[in-house]
Amino acid sequence: MLTLSHLHFAILQDVIVQDFSLALQQGEIKTLFGPSGCGKTTVLRLVSGLDKPKSGKIINQFNKIGFLFQENRLLNNLTAVKNIEIFMPTPDRQKIYALAEEIGLTPADLNKYPTELSGGMAKRVAFLRLLLSDCDLALLDEPFVGLDRDLRQRLIALLQQRIEQKNLACLLVTHDRFEAVRLSHEILLLSEKGMQIQQSIILNTPLSLRDNQYEEKTVKQYFQGRVYYD
Ligand SMILES: Nc1ncnc2c1ncn2[C@@H]1O[C@H](COP(=O)(O)OP(=O)(O)OP(=O)(O)O)[C@@H](O)[C@H]1O
């Protein structure tokens, strides 16, 4: 379980996070949905310990955090497959190749260095690295940006499996309202500055029952008439 209580964070006079609170349980996905620059990535950085809050409290009872950064952060001196392997509790190349195939990556792709991959390929490698690690809390910052619809669906399906089989908890940042309703148990709609929660949308339908029709209907129900950020 993760609990954030009354977090404040500022850079010089610029208040970025103001009195932000949230709780996350095992197997739960909560999404931070808000305009660019409102402080979503900063909250992920606070949770991971990369930044320290000026005040407020973070209680993290999860064992291991996996962080999928917007910019992937693969190690350029290792091949793609090695980048994944070093985060696996029990390295297993066949398992990597099998899962990679499901998202359109061949063994030849995985034997390349990150600088030899396209942006979308590097994104998928970083995603596999997180999925095959033994993290029990995943921080996902725009994990599907730059991927076509079909690949996006396949990655989402893999993530859903992992959440259901291993009880993975996720804090997701996305600008895509369809992604948000497909994957979240709760969506927090945020204001332009300071991470003020304007509305919380609770979605109780099991993830395995959410299809394209559910996405369309739910987006219409909650997002119609709103300013969209994607
Ligand atoms: N290293 C930094 N130095 C100064 N200001 C920063 C720094 N990092 C972030 N900020 C500021 O903090 C605010 C929040 O940034 P953050 O990246 O958390 O927003 P975000 O909601 O994740 O945005 P996006 O959706 O565009 O990724 C922004 O106004 C940004 O200018």
From TrEMBL:
One of its GO terms (molecular function) is ATP binding. InterPro entries: AAA+_ATPase, ABC_SmlMolc_Importer, ABC_transporter-like_ATP-bd, ABC_transporter-like_CS, P-loop_NTPase. It holds the Pfam family ABC_tran. This is NitT/TauT family transport system ATP-binding protein. The keyword ATP-binding applies. Signal peptide: none annotated. Keywords: ATP-binding, Nucleotide-binding, Transport. Transmembrane segments: none annotated. Residues 2-217 form the ABC transporter domain. It comes from Lonepinella koalarum. The lineage of its organism: Bacteria, Pseudomonadati, Pseudomonadota, Gammaproteobacteria, Pasteurellales.
